[in-house]
Amino acid sequence: MLLKGKEVADKINEEILTRIERIYEEGIVPTLAIIRVGNNPSDIAYENGAIKKANMLGIKVEKFIGQEDILEEDLIEIVKALNKDNDIHGILVLRPLPKHIDDDIIRNTIAPEKDIDGISDLSMAGVFTNTNLGFPPCTAEAAVSILKHYNIDLAGKKVVVIGRSLVIGKPVAMMLLNENSTVTICHSRTPLQQVEKLCREADIIVTAVGKIGTVTSSHVNGHQIIVDVGINFDENGKMVGDANAVELEDHVKGITPVPGGVGSVTTSILMSHVIKAIK
Ligand code: NAP
Questions:
Q1: Ranges of the chain with pLDDT below 50
Q2: For 75, phi and psi rounded to 5 degrees?
Q3: Helix (H, G, I), strand (E, B) or coil at 205
Q4: What is the pLDDT of residues 112-141, one digit of tens each?
Q5: Quick one: pLDDT at residue 279?
Q6: Residue in 8, 138, 165 to alter for ligand 1 test, most ligand atoms within 8 A of Cβ
Q7: 99, 103, 165, 184: least buried by Cβ within 10 Å?
Q8: Nearest CA to ligand 1 atom 6
Q9: pTM
Q10: Is the dihedral of CA 166, 172, 176, 179 positive or negative?
Q11: How large is the angle between the packed helices 41-57 and 5-25, nearest 10 degrees?
Q12: Residue of the nearest CA to atom 8 in ligand 1?
């Protein structure tokens, strides 16, 4: 079975639309600030996707675009001003930032209650302590939302997460631990045979590596759920995941396709964070 992201995103969007009506009645205009430095095409593509989704849901977007050579202190001032601005509910900083800017300083300048992309250390602390401090990173939450939407049992289930980045692997592992799964994390130093063995024994595999063929038929036992976070491009320029959903679909219980899986849920999660940030 293909675990498609669209129906998960549609449900999140519906919930946002219901809540947004009441928010407007209270005289509040939900507003997302997007900060972009320079004109990187992938930043612009992500920004346009976010604006399109925001427009669809009635969330206002204010853009703050800095030149590629913007001074770090000027960028810090922009973030601090947005932190103080009561008309701004969420702040999204498009990254990676140019090399002369310290990413750690910028992401930790964002007030946790406006850190809707979950990039600050305080947001990460919220994930680890399972509290409402900040927000979980959107992609990690999208992966967990898909599992919940399709009523996949998580408590007591064996989960293997492949990848340990701060953006996806670690937070998704912690969020699944918070759901009472038994979680094992694999990374580039885990011997390949061990990854295969752990995966074969798992109930759920979350792959967030960024390499074609990370999960193949040697990793599956016929009963698993695979959440594929990876985004790769094959030799024909076609977007593909870490696993091949077409090949594996008949050999697993469920698998998220790429495209059309986790990625299609991520911007809806981002918008749901803007709505939560209003509180
Ligand atoms: P990343 O920072 O490069 O992390 C990749 C992780 O994979 C690292 O922890 C690395 O281990 C591990 N790894 C590398 N080779 C491995 C191997 N052979 N076996 C096991 N683990 C291995 O990437 P990321 O930012 O987490 O992103 C992961 C993927 O998700 C990428 O394809 C990215 O494009 C995609 N992504 C998707 C979305 C979405 O919305 N769907 C959003 C963001 C990113 P080490 O720590 O040991 O190096």
A1: none
A2: -65, -40
A3: strand
A4: 999 999 999 999 999 999 999 999 999 999
A5: 84
A6: 165
A7: 99
A8: 163
A9: 0.96
A10: positive
A11: 60
A12: 163
DSSP notation for 125-193: HHHHHTSSSS---HHHHHHHHHHHHTT---TT-EEEEE---TTTHHHHHHHHHHTT-EEEEE-TTS-HH
- 118 in contact with ligand 1, CB cutoff 6 A: no
CA 122 to chain centre: 17
Q: Of 165, 271, 168, give the one whose Cα is nearest residue 227.
A: 168
Ligand 1 atom with the shortest distance to the CA of 261: 41
Reply yes or no: is the peptide bond before residue 96 cis, omega within 30 of 0: yes
Helix, strand or coil, per DSSP, at residue 86? coil
Integer CA distances (angstroms), 190 to 16, 108, 198, in order: 40, 31, 10
Residue nearest to atom 21 of ligand 1 (CA): 187
Quickly tell me which residue has 């967990």 as its tokens: 144
Whether ligand 1 lies within 6 angstroms of the CB of 187 is answered as yes
